[in-house]
């Protein structure tokens, strides 16, 4: 016997049933009738997911991976630890209260949200204070276990482990050390384990992805304490005795990286099994085959839970066969991590090119791959020969397909020299050329790219996509929107304009549709947070742009005005980060291919008279590896990709970049190394805290720290924005300071954008004027040196 399991299954539904049920429930005002519908949808999804796992041939179905909003929040609810500021009674938390935690209510803002390790899934951040206690929480998990058992399934429960739950939380109200809460939290987990034991659950998978991080020693010590406490027999009973009252066996599940540096610690923990990720960190298998006790379960995550490629069963079998020989049934076969991060079922993709489709596996198919591997280990590959043959054929085709391999792209990538990764002249020289060309005022005003995506814009795009609107009518409709957006910007008095991105559904998908080597699925949705899903494009082959992708729109916008219009591109790292990426070459190489396509695009834009080009890299920070020792390598190739994309233009073409969604304080040197002429960067949400980093780090080029938070419908006024500009001037000299919002405006309405941008332009003018007057008095020189101007700016304002 070799046990087959997955670490978790997507909960959103093959057709996003959970999304639609949630949104209907919220729209209906969370009434009891609507709640009933939502609960029924949840039940149906769980039953369908378990059935899919059983039909695939898995030995256990996973219970506990379902959540109405987020699995971290659901775990908090289970152990009675939701944030106390809401004043809810933890042990009788209602579904409506659960959603209030997730989404906020009249009295309290929502819990914060941030990325789950290095994925694009966002969890709700636990809030811990000295007063936090844990204890009995909701019964949902136990009900779900009963539900699965009633449907005849063999149940393995998956829970976010106590260390990870603490690690991911934020300490507030003077809590010095989250670990101080560990004893109370462990007591709550023990109670959960006892109740699961009473229900007859054999195995509990404790998800502890934190082991893939760089952990402080105190947390490693805490791991010993935690698992020693959890593994204690609860009601006596010798090792191995059957029956109730004993805690379930514990499978400690790691994922997202190499945990072999902790092999000694992990091996010493009194758990019954360990799961390791062999997709992210294949080499750690050897370490654990040596270190992990022979009698304990070793679960090998060999089917990729983070990507959509079909498993190469021959290769996986070859890797596991030797382990199986030595360990027999103590070898489990699994997915590398939960399947939360991949779409549900490839069967929904009826329109995808059949050759490409054949290379893919979504969650349902991956569950089957796991089962096939376990069967092959147990009874020989001949018993599942057809599935091995199909996998072999797909792997063979991927190695040679002309859809994937484009000699021209490979030649271009090889021909790149270091010169291609640098602008011709240093920034100061470029800045002079650009000043001469554009003649912008001090504190130039601009926006980040998109303007409101109105229902009319969406309708036009949908009609075109579905063939109800012809090419020419579509072109004219989009041009009308561009005309409108340009007219608006002229009216606000902005200095640098944009075309508004009406033609783009999404900043990555738009390019994915036009680039060779990319494919777009119809239903490849994965949960981003709550009811929100994303549909990442697939990068399956060498990336090549057969023709310019943005020039027509940008050039049209430029034809409407004498002010400069910025061309708008999505950067190579962001395209990579927000797509499913090919696994047959390093990510760095794929990034470079995208960069080459973008380089040609910048040159085409330049040739069409577009003098400023913005290359957005909002995802640069989130691509940073979990382990510090891998940061330098990532940043080196990521920066190089950006520079290859942006360095093919003349000195007087101004390259902009934009970043948001992350805290950038720790990668400022890499951001400076991009050598963009101008960066617009999100700072409003932290109230310009990021700027403090510029106290020590002297950002060399031009920068627009944001003065308008577009994530809120609130319209900031002139005073507020002028105040933020003045704050920025204390760190950044006026010659290098821009004024802009913190992101694109596509989610806003025009009636919010109108007053906000008018006020922003007004604020810039006001500060400009004060600066001008102060300078008349101080008669400053016009050099580009930072420090002295920063002080003058400050003096002018103070
Ligand atoms: N240019 C894009 C926009 O304005 C940038 C979006 C982003 O940073 N996420 O929408
Ligand atoms: Zn942004």
TrEMBL record:
Pinpoint the Cobalamin-independent methionine synthase MetE N-terminal domain residues. Answer: 4-325
Residues reported in the UniProt entry to bind L-homocysteine: 448-450, 501, 616
**Keyword Membrane among record annotations:** no
Could you state a single Gene Ontology molecular function term? 5-methyltetrahydropteroyltriglutamate-homocysteine S-methyltransferase activity
- Superkingdom is Bacteria
State the SUPFAM superfamilies in the record: UROD/MetE-like
Residues noted as binding Zn(2+) in the record, renumbered to the chain:
658, 660, 682, 743
Write the protein's name. 5-methyltetrahydropteroyltriglutamate--homocysteine methyltransferase
Q: Which organism is it from?
A: Paraburkholderia kururiensis
Q: Which gene encodes it?
A: metE
């Amino acid at each position: 016997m070799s046990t087959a399991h997955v670490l978790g299954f997507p909960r959103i539904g093959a057709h996003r049933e959970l999304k639609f049920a949630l949104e209907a429930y919220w729209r209906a005002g969370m009434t009891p009738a609507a709640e009933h519908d939502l609960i029924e949808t949840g039940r149906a999804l769980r039953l369908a997911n378990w059935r899919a796992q059983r039909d695939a041939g898995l030995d256990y179905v996973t219970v506990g991976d379902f959540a109405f909003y987020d699995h971290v929040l659901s775990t908090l609810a289970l152990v009675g630890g939701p944030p106390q500021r809401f004043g809810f009674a933890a042990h009788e938390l209602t579904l409506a209260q659960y959603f209030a935690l997730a989404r906020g209510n009249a009295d309290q803002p929502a819990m914060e949200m941030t990325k789950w390790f290095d994925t694009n899934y966002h969890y709700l951040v636990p809030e811990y204070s000295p007063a936090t206690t844990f204890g009995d929480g909701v019964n949902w998990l136990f009900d779900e276990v009963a539900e699965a058992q009633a449907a005849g399934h063999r149940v393995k429960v998956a829970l976010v482990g106590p260390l990870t739950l603490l690690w991911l939380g934020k300490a507030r109200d003077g809590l010095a050390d989250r670990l101080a809460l560990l004893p109370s939290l462990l007591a709550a987990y023990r109670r959960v384990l006892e109740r699961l034991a009473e229900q007859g659950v054999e195995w509990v998978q404790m998800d502890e992805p934190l082991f893939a991080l760089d952990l402080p020693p105190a947390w490693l010590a805490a791991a010993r304490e935690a698992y020693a406490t959890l593994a204690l027999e609860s009601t006596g009973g010798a090792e191995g005795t059957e029956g109730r009252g004993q805690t379930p066996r514990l499978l400690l599940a790691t994922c997202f990286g190499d945990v072999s540096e902790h092999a000694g610690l992990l091996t010493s923990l009194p758990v019954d099994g360990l799961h390791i990720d062999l997709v992210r960190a294949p080499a750690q298998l050897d370490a654990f085959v040596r270190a992990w006790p022979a009698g304990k379960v070793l679960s090998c995550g060999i089917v990729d839970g983070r990507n959509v490629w079909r498993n190469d069963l021959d290769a996986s079998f070859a890797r596991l066969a030797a382990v199986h020989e030595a360990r027999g049934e103590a070898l489990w076969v699994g997915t590398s991590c939960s399947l939360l991060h991949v779409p549900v079922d490839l069967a929904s993709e009826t329109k995808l090119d059949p050759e490409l489709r054949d290379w893919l596996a979504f969650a349902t198919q991956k569950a089957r791959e796991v089962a096939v591997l376990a069967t092959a280990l147990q009874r020989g590959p001949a018993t599942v020969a057809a599935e091995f043959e199909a996998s072999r054929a797909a792997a063979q085709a991927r190695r040679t397909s002309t859809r994937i391999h484009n000699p021209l792209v490979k030649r271009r990538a090889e021909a790149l020299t270091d010169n291609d990764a640098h602008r011709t002249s240093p920034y100061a020289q470029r800045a002079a050329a650009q000043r001469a060309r554009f003649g912008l005022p001090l504190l130039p005003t601009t926006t980040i790219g998109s303007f409101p995506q109105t229902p009319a814009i969406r309708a036009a795009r949908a009609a075109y996509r579905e063939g109800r609107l012809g090419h020419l009518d579509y072109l004219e409709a989009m041009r009308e929107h561009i005309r409108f957006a340009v007219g608006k910007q002229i009216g606000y008095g902005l200095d640098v304009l944009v075309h508004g991105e009406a033609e783009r559904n999404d900043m990555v998908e738009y390019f994915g549709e036009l680039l060779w080597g990319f494919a777009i699925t119809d239903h490849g949705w994965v949960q981003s947070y709550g009811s929100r899903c994303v549909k990442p494009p697939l990068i399956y082959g060498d990336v090549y742009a057969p023709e310019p992708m943005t020039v027509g729109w940008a050039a049209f916008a430029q034809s409407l005005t004498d002010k400069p219009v910025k061309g708008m591109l999505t950067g190579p790292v962001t395209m990579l980060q927000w797509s499913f990426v090919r696994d047959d070459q390093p990510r760095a190489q794929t990034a470079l291919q995208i960069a080459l396509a973008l380089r040609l695009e910048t040159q085409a834009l330049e040739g069409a008279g577009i003098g400023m080009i913005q290359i957005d890299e909002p995802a640069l920070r989130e691509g940073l590896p979990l382990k510090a020792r891998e940061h330098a390598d990532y940043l080196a190739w990521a920066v190089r990709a950006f520079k290859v994309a942006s360095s093919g233009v003349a000195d007087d073409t101004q390259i902009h970049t934009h970043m948001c969604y992350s805290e950038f304080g720790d990668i400022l040197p890499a951001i400076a190394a991009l050598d963009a002429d101008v960066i617009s960067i999100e700072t409003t949400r932290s109230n310009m805290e990021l700027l403090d980093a510029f106290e020590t780090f002297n950002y060399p080029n031009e920068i627009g720290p944001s003065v308008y938070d577009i994530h809120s419908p609130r319209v900031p006024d002139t005073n507020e924005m002028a105040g933020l500009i003045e704050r920025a001037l204390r760190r950044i000299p006026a010659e290098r300071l821009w004024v802009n919002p913190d992101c694109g405006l596509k989610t806003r309405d025009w009636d919010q954008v109108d007053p906000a941008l008018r006020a922003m332009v007004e604020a810039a003018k006001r500060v400009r004027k004060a600066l001008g007057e102060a300078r008349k008095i101080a008669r400053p020189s016009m050099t580009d040196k930072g420090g002295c101007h920063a002080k003058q700016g400050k003096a002018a304002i103070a």
